[in-house]
Amino acid sequence: MTYFMLVLGVCFVLGGLAVASNPSPYYGVIGLVLASVVGCGWLLSLGLSFVSLVLFMVYLGGMLVVFLYSVSLAADPY
């Protein structure tokens, strides 16, 4: 179980680095989804299933709205 938590922690950090280091929002959202899923898996392994579900719905839903807004602004020539 300790190794599983360590792997989830490393994947969470790598997902955060993927969001921060990608200049393109198209590839940054992949890191965002990875970090969100791994964070929810981490909470699930601790037995916090409701908190994990709320985190997934609120965090990922809100951040994907911001992602779509930034992509639409980047695609608009005016």
TrEMBL record:
Annotated catalysed reactions: a ubiquinone + NADH + 5 H(+)(in) = a ubiquinol + NAD(+) + 4 H(+)(out)
EC number: 7.1.1.2
Alphabetical list of InterPro entries matching this protein: ComplexI_Subunit6 (IPR050269), NADH_UbQ/plastoQ_OxRdtase_su6 (IPR001457), Nuo/plastoQ_OxRdtase_6_NuoJ (IPR042106)
Membrane-spanning segments: 30-48, 53-75
Domain of life: Eukaryota
Signal peptide: 1-20
Record protein name field: NADH-ubiquinone oxidoreductase chain 6
Organism in which the protein naturally occurs: Atlantisia rogersi
Name of the gene: Mtnd6_0
